[in-house]
User: Which sequence fits this backbone?
């Protein structure tokens, strides 16, 4: 059974800092991995999707990497801003027709 | 293009009642999935549909059911509500052909409170 872990549960950083959010999963046989952002009371917004054959994806100040052999993914946020404050979740899909398994998320607070 | 629309946004029900939640996916999306989000358990998968067929089902009791219509709109139903069913129910759609290759687009959810 796939398990996805995100530690720490919460993180507070000053504005402008570069930061890394971690995601680990127990079964390395994954199909793809997605990073999402959730603002309070809202649904999730997809940030990046990495297929199993890829090592990383970039979008603006965000870069996500995937290391299947070690069961890890990282989301790198450059030059953090207060608007980046949200909960960040990663989710793993085990196969083409299988379900997504989510981590519990990391609540990020960027202080002005 | 309109996003994923979920109705209603808020619901308050009494134990033992049943409830139906609705989800309209992004136009052209045929894959729809449902999730339950609670502070303790996080996001848990309920079920997934593609072209009116249920592709996957999570580990929830039979009181939770869903369906998808020919226009890709989806509904989920919870019967005999329990206090523990209080949660944010999220619907997501994607443009893939049932393969899970594409990013999910989520609605803002329906907040269900069971008293």
Assistant:
């Amino acid at each position: 059974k796939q398990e996805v872990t995100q530690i720490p549960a919460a993180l507070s950083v000053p504005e402008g800092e570069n930061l890394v959010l971690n995601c680990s999963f127990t079964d390395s046989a994954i199909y793809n991995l997605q990073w999402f952002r959730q603002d309070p009371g809202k649904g999730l917004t997809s940030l990046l999707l990495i297929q199993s054959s890829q090592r990383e994806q970039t979008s603006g100040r965000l870069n996500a990497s995937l290391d299947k052999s070690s069961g890890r993914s990282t989301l790198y946020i450059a030059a953090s801003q207060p608007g980046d404050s949200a909960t960040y979740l990663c989710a793993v899909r085990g196969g083409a027709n299988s379900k997504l398994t989510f981590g519990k998320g990391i609540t990020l607070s960027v202080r002005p | 293009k309109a996003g994923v629309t979920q109705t209603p946004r808020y619901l308050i029900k009494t134990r033992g009642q049943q409830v139906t939640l609705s989800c309209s996916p992004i136009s052209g999306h045929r894959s729809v999935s449902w999730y339950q989000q609670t502070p303790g358990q996080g996001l848990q998968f309920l079920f997934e549909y593609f072209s009116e067929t249920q592709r996957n089902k999570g580990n929830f009791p039979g009181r939770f059911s869903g369906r998808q219509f020919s226009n890709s709109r989806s509904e989920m139903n919870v019967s005999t509500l329990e206090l523990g069913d209080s949660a944010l129910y999220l619907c997501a759609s994607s443009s893939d052909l049932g393969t899970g290759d594409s990013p999910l687009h989520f609605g803002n959810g329906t907040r269900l409170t069971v008293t």
